[in-house]
Amino acid sequence: MTIAPLALRKKQPTEIDLTFDQVEAIGAELEALRARIMADVGESDRDYIYKIIGIQRKLEFAGRAAMYVPFLPPVWLAGVAALGVSKILDNMEIGHNVMHGQYDWMREDTYNSREFDWDTVCPGEQWKHSHNYMHHTYTNVLGEDRDVGYGILRMDRDQKWNPYYLGNLGYATALMLLFEWGVMLHDLEVENIIQGKRKWSDVKGLLKGMWRKASKQVAKDYIIYPALTGPFFLTTVVGNAAANLIRNVWTYSIIFCGHFPSGAQTFKAEDCIDETKGQWYIRQMLGSANINGGRLFHIMSGNLSHQIEHHLFPDVPANRYPEMSPEVKAICEKYGLPYNTGSLSAQLGSTWKKIAKLSLPNWMTRDDNNVVVNIERTKAVEAA
C-alpha cells in the first residue's frame, strides 16, 4: 500500500494512518454538520449579532464620554477599558465575522461582507484578500500562507534560519503592540519588496487604499475625537491610544494562540497537490488550535477561541461554533486525530515558547510537534 504524507515531520513519535475512504468519510461528516447548522441559521443569529452590535455601541459611547472627565481617574480608566472592549468587539465578533460573509444571508445594507467597515487602519478589501482568500485557502502552507510569521517572524522549523531571527521575540512583541498596523501592511509583502521580488510600482494601488483608510482612522482617534474634548485633548489622545493598545494585544494573543501553539502543524506546498475536500478539512484541523473558556470569553475572542471550527466552517456564524465543537471533537476522536485545545495561559505560553525557540537554529532546539498523519494515495494520483 502506498502511503503519502499529508504533514511531513521527521522522527515523529506518533503517526496516524488514514485510508482515502476514511479521509473522505471525515469530510462527509463535517459537510453534514455544516449543512445541518446552516439549515437552522436564522432569526436567532440575526438577533445575536444585533445584540452584540448594540453592546459595542454602548461601550464606545461610554468610553468616549469618559474622556471628558480625566479629572476623575477611576471614571477615565473605566472609559479607556470600555473603549478598548468596544474595539475588540468591533474587530473580532463583528468585523472579522461579518467580513467572512457569515451574515450575508441577512441581506442587510451595512452588515455584509461587501459594505462593512471596521474600526481599524487596515482596509477591509485588502484584509479579505490576505485573510479570507490566502490564509483560509492555504492555511499553514509554507510559502503560501503569509500568516505564518506575518513576513517578519520565524514560526516553523522548516523556515530557513538566519541571524535575523535572533530578534524573533522582539519582532513578535512589536507586532503585538502594533498589531492593527501589522495587519494593514500584511498584503503589501514588504519583505518581498526588500528582497526585490516585488516592485513598489506593483503596490501603488494597495498603498493608496492603506493611506485612505489609515489616515481616516488616525484622524478619528487622534485628532477629531480629542479635539471634541477641548482642553482634555492630550488625555483623550492617550486614552484612545491605550484603547487601541488593549485591542491590539488581545487580538494578537487570540489569533496567535489559535495558529501557533505546540502541536499546530504546518505543511509544504507539495503536501497539498490534488488535495481533496476531506484532505483540506484535515489540514484545517491539524493547523489550528482552540482555547478553553466560558461564554463571555468566547464572545470577546470573536469565537476565534474555536479556531478549529472557524477554519473548518469560516462562513458559518461564529456564535454557532460552541455547539459544533463537541461534534468536531468527537469526529477527531473517532478517527484518532488530535483536537488541540487548552487554556489561554497554556496556549499563550506554548506560543511564546515556540517564538523563542525558533529564534535559534534547529540544531539548538527540539522539535515539539508530535503528530504526523499519513494518507493513502488515490488511484487517480497513482495513475498520474
From TrEMBL:
Instruction: Please provide, alphabetically and separated by semicolons, the GO molecular function terms listed in this UniProt record.
Output: oxidoreductase activity, acting on paired donors, with oxidation of a pair of donors resulting in the reduction of molecular oxygen to two molecules of water
Look up the domain of life of the source: Bacteria
Q: What is this protein called in UniProt? A: Putative acyl-CoA desaturase
State the GO CC annotations.
membrane
Q: Give TM segment ranges.
A: 164-184
Q: Per the database record, which ranges form the Fatty acid desaturase domain?
A: 75-341
Which terms under GO biological process does the entry name?
Answer: lipid metabolic process
